[in-house]
């Protein structure tokens, strides 16, 4: 428990330390890629396009389409991952620069969760309003 390794880990992997911040952003970027490739499976997308006689202009159906979708997904995910990393780390950096106590900060991941929940709530409310609006147009037939 009181070994030099554990002391080093506790001291350097804190969010206030540059190594901890770098590791934090690195994990966010890694999990962004992981999540993107879970949500969009390039192999399955290429197969579905081929089955539905769809294609990407200038790209052959099959393996070439899969490689193209993978390349595009890597590029788009890179932009999103950098953005998520920046949003997550900026509150920590500002707290460090302004020398605020850790209790005064709101974490970047907390901010992302709050915004995500707020957006999802707005979508749900909008769909309920649209549903209520269209109920008046539907008449029961006896």
UniProtKB/TrEMBL annotation:
It holds the Pfam family SecY. Keywords: Membrane, Transmembrane, Transmembrane helix. The keyword Lyase does not apply. One of its GO terms (cellular component) is membrane. The chain crosses the membrane at residues 15-38, 72-94, 106-125. Coiled coil: none annotated. GO terms for biological process: protein transport. The keyword Transmembrane helix applies. InterPro entries: SecY/SEC61-alpha, SecY_dom_sf. Belongs to the SecY/SEC61-alpha family. This is Preprotein translocase subunit SecY.
